[in-house]
Amino acid sequence: MGGIDLTVWVPILATWVLAVGTLVFAFWQLRQNQRLHSASTLLQLRDQFSGPRYRQARRTLSTWLLGDERTDEPDDWEVGLFFQLLGSLTRTRAIERKLVRDAFGTWITAYYTRMTRPVDLLARWRAQSKDPLIFADFEWLAHRIIEEERRRAPGPGFDETLAEEARYVLEGDARLAPSP
């Protein structure tokens, strides 16, 4: 009677294999649903960013950022708030950073570059308002994208190229028609 009773252990083992397999499948299915939701959300945000309201806001802010003499702050914060939302959604992993980079990376780095160079306007606005969190998630996201671009294209001249690309993108946004 000292042997293993297979009639007891096989069903127990099969039950455990089935339970673990079910959990693995459920996790995989949840991850796929998260990816689909992330992509769907990003497509909606992309449509919104290309819509008339944001086209006007992009034109207004880009024109202001390209100007030589800037007032203390822009009249329209909509684009900055949009990028702040993207940063927040990305930081909390509600949407995937790679998808955000692919869909909005050019604009994020362009607007961030012009907001921080040659004068760091974000630092100025934070100091004036005594709020260190103004556009913090936008800045976090911009830093991640810039770091990744720097790793992908190492070498001298990266900052100059970034500044040139920012000017090019903002000049395009400054010429946007109010609606497509």
Question: Main attributes?
Answer:
180 residues, mainly alpha, 7 helices, 0% strand
Would you give an account of this structure?
76% of the residues lie in helices and 0% in strands. By secondary structure, the protein is mainly alpha-helical. It has one domain (41-174).
What's a quick, concise take on this entry?
With 180 residues, the protein is mainly alpha-helical. It contains 7 helices and no strands. Helix 2 (52-66) crosses helix 7 (158-174), helix 4 (97-116) packs across helix 6 and helix 4 (97-116) packs across helix 7 (158-174).
| Shape, per Cα inertia axes | elongated
Succession of helices and strands:
HHHHHHH
How would you characterize the largest beta sheet? none
Low-confidence runs: none
**Number of DSSP strand runs:** 0
User: Which structural class should the secondary elements be placed in?
Assistant: mainly alpha
Any idea how many domains? Answer: 1
What percent of residues adopt helix (DSSP H or I)?
over 70%
